[in-house]
Amino acid sequence: SLVQPITVDIVNEEQYMYIYVETPGVSRENIEIQFRNNKVIISIEKNRIYGIPEMSEIKYGKFERTLVLPMCITRRDSVTLSYNHGLTRIKIDKSVQDNNFSLRFEEEVD
C-alpha cells in the first residue's frame, strides 16, 4: 500500500524560516517536531475516531519526515509552533542561532 507522505511548504525569509506542515485530522498532541543539528524530524500520528468504514481512502497511522535545513537550529527559544485549521506552522528565528565556536583548555589542572 502507498504511504501518504507528510507534505510541507518552506518559506525562507531574511530573519525567519517558516515550515508549514499539512496535518488535517491530526490532534496537536499527536504532532512531534524534533531538531537535530540541521535536521527537522516531523512525526505525526493520525488515528481513526470512528468504526471500520465500508470504503476507506483516508490513511491512518504514524508518519515521519526528515527535512534538511541550510542551518543548524541551536536555540529552543528561537522556535515557535502554531496550529490552525489542519496546518501546523513551525517558525524559526534565524537571527538568534549561535555561530560556530571552538573550545580550548585554559590551563592544565593537576
Summary of the model, kept short:
It is built from no helices and seven strands.
List the helices and strands and how they pair.
Blueprint: E1 8-12, E2 16-22, E3 31-36, E4 39-46, E5 61-68, E6 79-84, E7 87-93
Antiparallel strand pairs: 1-2, 2-7, 3-4, 4-5, 6-7
List keywords for this structure.
single chain, 110 residues, mainly beta, 4-stranded antiparallel β-sheet, 3-stranded antiparallel β-sheet, 43% strand, elongated
Task: Walk me through this protein's architecture.
The chain is mainly β. It has no helices and seven strands. It has a four-stranded antiparallel β-sheet with strand order 1-2-7-6, with no helix packed on it. The termini are far apart. The mean pLDDT is 85.
Largest sheet descriptor? 4 strands, antiparallel
The topology string of helices and strands comes to EEEEEEE
Mean pLDDT comes to 85
| Overall geometric form | elongated
Q: Report how far the terminal alpha carbons are from each other.
A: 63 Å
The helix content is under 10%
| Biggest sheet strand line-up | 1-2-7-6
Structural class: mainly beta
Number of helices: 0
Q: Proportion of β residues?
A: 35-45%
Rg estimate, integer Å = 19 Å
Task: List segments where confidence is low: pLDDT < 50 over at least 5 consecutive residues.
Answer: none
